[in-house]
Amino acid sequence: MRALRAWSVVLTLALCFGLIAPGTVAGESATPPAGLLWNKTGLPAVFPLQVKTLPGRDHVVILLDAETGEEALAAYIRGGAFFRVLVPPGDYRLRFMSGKVWQGEVALFGNGPETEVFELRRALRFQTQGLGTKAGHIVDLRGRGTQVQIKDQRICQSFRPDFPRLSRTERTDGQPSDPFTELKYEVPERRNVRSRYCW
User: Fold this and answer.
1) Residue 26 pLDDT exceeds 70
2) Which end of the chain has less neighbouring CB within 10 Å, N or C?
3) pTM score of the predicted model
4) How far apart are CA 82 and CA 99, in angstroms?
């Protein structure tokens, strides 16, 4: 009897502190927020990847290095919601998993009949083009069957440099001014960089 009371206290505390979500099924895990799950490359994620989906099923996109096949990045997508993530530079194959019951970052949606897995036929390149353009992609999964549309997406960056300004210090001692010693340059601290989506 004491053991039963002890277990009921443990379960009550676990429910109170959110360690167990009420109504969860065995193997089911709390659904993560939409966005980046992990980035294993160690590279900065700066190139845009937008994915369009239908409501009703959530998705996970896994970027696989096109040469080695190693997992590079994963992100969680809520079905039907706007989704964009920044990814590191490189050539990647995109693998999508979709399902209805999230089972954690390792099992994802599990191996049940509700889970679908597919991979894009060609690798996508995420790279810098020219001086200030970051090239990425829009992947539209809303087509019927296996129809996937892929479009280019770019972030164009421009900057307006602040040039050093010449300023003159005024003498207060009544002496004649010396233009060589009283002029100084004020160097700006940073540049004004603007980013916008462009085609």
Assistant:
1) no
2) N
3) 0.69
4) 18
Query: Which tens digits make up the pLDDT trace of 100-133?
Result: 888 888 888 888 888 899 999 999 999 999 888 9
Instruction: Please enumerate in sequence order all residues whose Cβ is within 8 A of that of 18, keeping only pairs 6 or more positions apart, or say none.
Output: none
CA distance linking residue 35 with residue 38, whole number of Å:
9
* Amino acid identity for residue 118 in this structure: F
Burial class (CB in 10 A: 0-12, 13-18, 19+), 109: buried
Q: Report the candidate in 131, 148, 123, 126 with the shortest Cα–Cα distance to residue 59.
A: 148
CB 60 within 8 A of CB 75: yes
Q: Is the confidence at residue 6, as pLDDT, over 70? A: no
pLDDT tens column, 121-168: 999 999 999 888 999 999 999 986 668 999 999 999 887 666 666 666
Per-residue b or e along 156-168, where b marks 16 or more CB atoms closer than 10 Å to that residue's CB: bbeeeeeeeeeee
**CA–CA separation, 104 and 31 (whole Å):** 8
